[in-house]
Specification:
Elements: E1 18-32, H1 34-37, H2 42-60, E2 65-72, E3 78-84, H3 87-98, E4 106-120, H4 121-133, H5 141-157, H6 159-162, E5 171-179, H7 192-207, E6 214-219, E7 228-234, H8 238-247, H9 251-256, E8 257-259, E9 263-268, H10 273-278
Helix pairs in contact: 4-5
Length: 279
């Protein structure tokens, strides 16, 4: 009778990467109701836009949040982006915008709610391995305290990225995205070490465009219909195409990414609203 020996396999690291969150973000996209808008004379239209410009200046002067407006190219006429410190403040901004007289002539096209998110894949792998080596029981008080220490340290170091200024570049490109969860390819069944490797390679592509594109990633799992939102800001819109096209060839995008609708716009300063929306 043969003797059987068992060889214990090392336990896989926890699957869920650590994240840190910052500013809450709301995108509102609108189309001008042309049937109603065309009933107004030019003076009435200009007065509506001037009132909106005054409100926009007021919102941009607040210390508790940021607001920017963009004239959309296709898929609508206007996109307004709000950055606030809390979800309640975001709802207040949406409510206040709806009180503007111009809102009565706008038809909603789309909206997106999310929160600035930094995924800590590499830090997660290092932290989880270190805690395993110390023999800490997963999700015990000691484990959770050590994880929280990592999160607090990273949040302090990355505060400017968690609460960024909306860039003043001329053009914006916003789109939502998911990671595939199909039977054949499922991002959420890939070991965390492998996901960390792919995300590192993915990030290296973006770093090559750091001088021409500013990027803000927001998380929306449990908040909206997609899993992440991406805002790109640049002074040359062709760079959006080049960056996203190149990223399509890296593994994480080529195999696991799914993209939603793209919204591209031109920044509208308050004094430019009449020109860019009315002409």
């Amino acid at each position: 009778m043969s003797e059987q020996t068992s060889h214990s396999q090392p336990q896989a690291l926890p699957a869920v990467p650590l994240t840190i969150e910052g500013a809450w973000v709301l995108h509102l996209m609108y189309r001008i109701d042309r049937a109603q808008w065309n009933k107004l004379d030019n003076l009435s239209r200009r007065n509506l836009l001037r009132e909106f410009a005054a409100d926009l200046r007021h919102m941009q002067g607040r210390e508790d949040g940021q607001t920017e407006a963009y004239a959309l190219v296709g898929k609508g006429d206007l996109m307004v982006i709000f950055f606030r410190e809390t979800l309640a403040a975001l709802q207040e901004a949406q409510r206040d915008f709806g009180r503007n007289s111009l809102a009565g002539y706008l038809e909603p096209v789309a909206d997106y709610t999310s929160v600035v998110e930094l995924g800590l894949y590499e830090s997660s792998v290092k932290t989880f391995r270190a805690l395993e080596e110390k023999g800490l029981e997963r999700h015990s008080e000691a484990w959770q305290a050590a994880v929280q220490e990592t999160l607090d340290r990273q949040a302090e170091a990355m505060a400017p990225r968690l609460y960024p200024r909306i860039p003043e570049n001329e053009y914006v490109c916003f789109y939502p995205m998911d990671r595939l969860r199909g039977e054949d390819k499922n991002w959420y069944t890939v070991p965390i070490e492998e996901r960390a490797r792919m995300m590192h390679e993915h990030g290296m592509v973006g770093r090559r465009y750091a001088g021409t594109v500013k990027q803000i990633i927001t998380g929306s799992i449990g908040l909206d219909d997609w899993e992440w939102g991406v805002d790109l800001f640049a002074d040359d819109p062709v760079v959006f195409k080049k960056l996203i096209y190149e990223m399509r060839f890296d593994e994480v995008s080529a195999v696991y990414a799914k993209f939603g609708k793209f919204y591209v716009g031109v920044r509208c300063k308050p004094e430019e609203l009449e020109e860019k929306l009315l002409g």
